[in-house]
Amino acid sequence: MADHVAGIEADARSWAESAWDPDLTVGEWWSRLLADRWSLPSLPDHAYGRGYSRAEEQAVWRGFAAVGTLGPPSGIATMMAAPTIADHGTSAQIDRYVPAILNGTEAWCQLFSEPGAGSDLAGLSTRAERDGESWVVTGQKVWTSFGHEADLGMLLARTDPDLPKHAGISWFAFPMRQPGVEVRPLVELTGRAMFNEVFIDAAPVADEALIGGPGGGWKVGNTTLAYERGSLAGAAVTLPYARTGSVAGQLDQRAGDFGQRDEVVRRSAIPDGVAESVWWGQQADELDRLDPVLRDELAAAHAEREVNRLLGQRARTGAVPAVGNLGKLAMSEIARTRREVANRAVGAAGMLADADAEAGPAEGEAQRATLASPAPSIYGGTDQVQRNIIGERVLGLPKEPGPPKDTPFRDLPNN
Question: Per CATH, the architecture of 2-104 is what?
Answer without folding.
Answer: Orthogonal Bundle (1.10)
